[in-house]
Design a protein that fits this description.
Length: 710
């Protein structure tokens, strides 16, 4: 079967129709390569005036086949290398045939799809529904189908950087501005008309970079202005990635190297770097987590089956503070009516003003029209009146973290609701089953744990209580997807999954300080591991006061349950910080100083208070942060707080800052290998105590040769 249909029209123009059999989208795989190479061979023996590519799918072309790339290893890499070389050679043959080649872009052309379009001389796109770009870097890869070579030559090194090293996507209009799209039309018929008209008007065609005397915009790497920038570029990149992500570095190498040689050699350089990246552990981590696992979550892996998909039309939010205001904004932006209730109309209006502020900024940046902003704001009703909650299909409470208060607002809201409505709590620490006791309908009661700031953070942790029904979970899951966020589903426990594992990271950093390790070394060890924020800085954000409150509540709860609280080595450090009146960022003083007119910096008194001269190995500090999180996550698996590996991986990266390169907290364990992980954890347990004790689940998996997978 062929993925490319060959049709010649009355004008002697060959239509190469992209239509992978039995598939929803066109993919750059072995089948496509064979079909494409065959089509180009046929063209070489045929008489034709021009070629146009068009797609029989709703998108133009989806890109590389990630199943194949995921399965490629160093041992079988030559298969991929040969396939890519054959495909690129054929693309180049067509590109240099001297006759016009056009791409009719009817839908998304990302990755390999955009690379195919780039190999054409003329690109026409539909005005609506088209996204263009090369997002490979986000999966730890580089565009290996000629994308780096062609974008660098067409745009110039500097202008191409964000599209290649950050994977920035763009719309046809931007493409036209950049000179990458030649024409924008309204209908699929016009796509073909535009291509045909251009082919007829241009019987001979060449890529700009194949025309003798072509100058790459901004010049080649040896151009004096570029030569000044280039020695700094790798350092700037390293500052961002800390050397944990090889793809952006490889892309920069291909850009610089490929611009110094002819196109054919450039393609070979690109292919070699591409294949090497495909085989890298980091690419496997990113593809596994951000492609396969994330897609499973989006497709509803943890959503109970058998319930119709539900849409929320009106959501009531109790508490218009930091979290409530953010949840209101995220919901209203997706077209949901919002009732934002607080104790006074003034408070509620303050919460609504948060949306106004964010929307105004978008209007200023021209990402939204004034009308769109007003329509979104009109959806938010700020009120002090509980009766306004009538008709809501979902309530989310985000009042203070106080059991009695939460019980009171639950009762008050439920009296206004239809029996089918769902009641969710955004508590960050209080067990859901206990909170559900205040509800008349505990089956409809669930936890929806958002992260701060809500408008930026993509994750929502859904927590089911003992009595939560499957239907309630399905509705909550649908709502999270409806507002464009990613749901993970966990069972009830103190701190659920994310807060619990996050705490181990923060506490480990604080404990190190107590051991006399220099604060700067602790923070830097986190950065070098790829954490976006150090444990001391993030504790300042959360505030030591809040951590203290949670600890006291934990001690109280454990005492009531007849359990004993084991002092964490971070506890005395936190106490001394509070004694020194340094509770965190909000107070302007924590582990860091927050000068009014300058950048924050570590508090100079830390050394005096905690020593700061202990000897340390950098690798130990890095290991400790990642190991303690992984061990706590394994405990969550063992206790069935977590029931899937994908939720652990995605939740850890999107919610609590686990370094992206790891592919998530359990994938980190997988790549070290279970036996090696257990051995190192045992070492750490000997050095640092019981908190590193290896959970039985890890020992068993190591013994049985297993890895974490769903
Ligand atoms: P906040 O202090 O900013 O806001 C709480 C709001 O609730 C205030 O505006 C208050 O006036 C209002 N309120 C109090 N009693 C009320 C009542 N009877 N009816 C309606 N509104 C009432 O608190 P924040 O930070 O927004 O936290 C809210 C909840 O979200 C807490 O349970 C917290 O644990 C949780 N949470 C907080 C996160 C954070 O990073 N701050 C992250 C995730 C969850």
């Amino acid at each position: 079967m062929s993925s490319v249909i060959y049709e010649k029209d009355a004008d002697n123009i060959v239509h190469l129709i992209l239509d992978k059999p039995n598939a929803g989208a066109n993919l750059m795989d072995q089948e496509f390569t064979d079909s494409f190479v065959a089509a180009v061979e046929k063209l070489q023996n045929d008489d034709w005036a021009g070629v146009l590519f068009r797609s029989n799918k709703s998108t133009f072309f989806a890109g590389g086949n990630l199943d194949d790339l995921y399965a490629t290893t160093k041992e079988n890499a030559h298969v991929l290398h040969n396939m890519v070389t054959r495909l690129k050679d054929a693309m180049r043959t067509l590109e240099t045939s001297g006759k016009p080649v056009a791409a009719c872009i009817n839908g998304a052309a990302l990755g390999g799809g955009w690379e195919l379009a780039l190999s054409c001389h003329y690109r026409v796109a539909l005005n609506k529904g088209v996204t263009l770009g090369l997002p490979e870097v986000t999966l730890g890869l580089l565009p290996g189908g000629g994308g780096v070579v062609r974008m660098s030559r067409l745009l110039g090194l500097q202008a191409a950087l964000p599209f290649l090293t950050e994977g920035r996507q763009f719309k046809p209009e931007k493409g036209k501005e950049l000179g990458l799209i030649n024409d924008i039309v309204e209908t699929p018929e016009q796509l073909v008309e535009s291509a045909i008209a251009w082919i007829k008007a241009n019987p001979k065609a060449q890529q700009p970079y194949d025309v003798k005397g072509y100058k790459v915009p901004g010049g080649k790497p040896n151009n004096p202005s570029l030569a000044k920038m280039l020695p700094i570029a790798p350092a700037m990149m390293r500052d961002k990635t800390k050397g944990t992500l090889p793809a952006p570095e490889s892309i920069l190498c291909v850009m610089v190297e490929s611009l110094q040689v002819d196109v054919e050699s450039a393609m070979r350089i690109e292919t070699r770097y591409f294949v090497e990246l495909v085989c890298s552990q980091v690419a496997k981590n990113l593809i596994g987590t951000f492609w396969f696992q994330l897609n499973e979550i989006k497709a509803g892996a943890a959503r109970p089956k058998g319930f119709d998909s539900a849409k929320v039309t009106k959501v009531g939010i109790l508490g218009a503070g930091m979290m409530g205001a953010g949840i209101a904004y995220s919901s209203a932006c997706k077209g949901i009516d919002v009732v934002l209730k607080d104790v006074s109309a003034e408070n509620a209006e303050k919460g609504k003003a948060y949306s106004q502020n964010l929307l105004d900024k978008k209007v200023k940046k021209k990402r939204l029209t004034a009308e769109q902003r007003d329509a979104t704001l009109d959806r938010i009703l700020a009120t002090e009146n509980a009766a306004d909650l009538a008709g809501c299909d979902l309530i989310i409470e985000a009042v203070f973290e106080d059991r009695e208060l939460k019980a009171r607002v639950t009762k008050e809201a439920e009296s206004q609701l239809a029996p089918s409505a769902v009641f969710a709590t955004n508590t960050s620490t209080l067990p859901i089953t206990g909170l559900a006791e205040a509800s008349e309908r505990p089956a409809n009661f669930i936890g929806l744990h958002f992260f701060s700031p809500v408008d930026k953070m993509p994750l929502v942790e859904i927590i089911t209580g003992k009595e939560t029904s499957e239907e309630t979970l399905a509705k909550a899951y649908d709502y999270v997807l409806q507002i464009g966020k990613t749901p993970i589903v966990v069972n009830d426990s103190r701190g659920f999954f994310t807060s619990r594992v996050f705490a181990t990271f923060a506490q480990e950093g604080i404990a190190m300080l107590g051991e006399g390790i220099p604060a700067a070394a602790i923070e830097n060890a986190a950065f070098l591991s790829g954490f976006p924020v150090g444990p001391l800085a993030v504790t300042d954000e959360v505030s030591i006061t809040l951590m203290e409150k949670i600890r006291n509540q934990t001690i109280k709860d454990m005492q009531e349950a007849g359990e004993e609280y084991v002092l964490h080595p971070s506890d005395p450090v936190a106490d001394r910080m509070l004694e020194a009146n340094r509770p965190g960022k909000l107070a302007g003083a924590g582990f860091y100083e927050y000068p009014a007119n300058g950048k924050k910096h570590l508090w100079s008194g830390l050394k005096e208070t905690f020593g700061g001269e202990a000897e340390f190995e950098l690798q130990d500090l890095k290991d400790r942060m990642l190991y303690i999180m992984a061990i706590e996550t394994a405990r969550c698996m063992e206790e069935k707080v977590l029931t899937s590996v994908r939720d652990a991986n995605i939740g850890s990266i999107m919610g609590i800052g686990t370094p992206v390169w790891t592919g998530g907290v359990l994938q980190y364990v997988n790549q070290i290998g279970l036996p090696a992980f257990v051995a190192r954890a045992e070492e750490l347990a000997n050095q640092h105590g019981e908190r590193y004790a290896v959970p039985q689940i890890l020992k068993d998996m190591a013994k049985n040769g297993e890895t974490f997978k769903d």
